Amino acid sequence: HHPLTLGPGAIQTLLACRSSDNIGAPFYSAHPLPYQPYESPLHDSPVATVEPRQAADTPEHPAPVPHNASRSEQMLREVQATLNTLVEMAGVFTRHQSDSSPLQPDPGLAERERELQAQEARLQALEAQLQARQNEQEHRRTRLAEHEAALDRRAAELDVQIEKLVAAKERLRRLMRTVNENVHVNNTLGAIGKALPVVDD
User: Fold this and answer.
1) Keywords for this entry (predicted)?
2) Taking the CB of residue 20, how many other CB atoms lie within 10 A of it?
3) Cβ-proximal residues to 19 (8 Å cutoff; 6+ apart), any chain
4) Which helix (H) or strand (E) holds 183?
5) Which of 55, 89, 97, 200 has the most C-beta neighbours closer than 10 Å?
6) Contact 75/15 with Cβ under 8 angstroms?
7) 14 domain-assigned
8) Is 50 helix (H, G, I), strand (E, B) or coil?
9) What is the rounded CA–CA span in Å between residue 9 and residue 4?
């Protein structure tokens, strides 16, 4: 692990931030590690920006360092330490990923998938059989309804024939009574005729 070195542009960018609470938040949000914001004693302190100066304007004897510059240096050291910690944590996370074995296909999962496919095929076959049975039952129901209708028609025809037979029987009964009456009359007349004396001409 080597300390992280910041260039002038990165230093000015970090110095432009007035709060160091969110430093490291993107790294923690992407990994299952608890985020602990860094509490800086210079949370609300103004930070001086570093302005570039021309070489011609640089005096031979540098001016005394202002008080704000010491605060900026302290802030820079805090940021530097935080970034070094983040780099170290990233290295640990990278080594952990490289050391972990790659995911191997689970044979049990493939077997379970084949079982599910076979079960689905069986269910489809059972569904087809059930549909065929339903179609057959519907066909039988139609045939039974047609047969029942034919029986109803035949029963109606038989009722008509029975009524005709009853009427014919009634006519035959009346005819037989008439015949019997005629026979009785004839027998009576014959008896009367026999009882009468014979008259010779």
Assistant:
1) Coiled coil
2) 18
3) 40, 43
4) helix 107-195
5) 89
6) yes
7) yes
8) coil
9) 14
Report the domain count for the chain: 1
189 within some domain: no
Residues of the chain with pLDDT under 70: 1-69, 93, 95-105, 196-201
Q: Tell me, what's the pLDDT at 54?
A: 47
Q: Is residue 77 part of a domain?
A: yes
Whether the pTM exceeds 0.85: the reply is no
Task: Please check whether residue 59 lies inside any domain of the structure.
Answer: yes
How many CB atoms sit inside 10 A of residue 14's CB?
19
Rg (CA), the chain: 61
Residue 65: alpha-carbon gap to chain centroid: 71
Dig out the tokens for 122 from the structure: 């069986």
Residues 49 and 76: their CA atoms lie apart, in Å, by: 12
Q: Are 6 and 77 in contact (CB under 8 A)?
A: no
Q: Looking at residue 74, what is its pLDDT? A: 84
Q: Which two tokens stand for residue 2?
A: 């080597």
**What's the full length of the chain, in residues?**
201
Dist CA 110 CA 104 (whole Å):
12
Cα 9 → chain centroid: 54
Decide: 53 and 115 in contact? Cβ < 8 Å: no
Q: What six digits make up the tokens of 92?
A: 């640990």
The domain of 43 spans 8-99
What does each C-alpha distance from 23 to 17, 76, 172, 199 come to in angstroms? 10, 13, 124, 166
DSSP-assigned letter for residue 63:
P
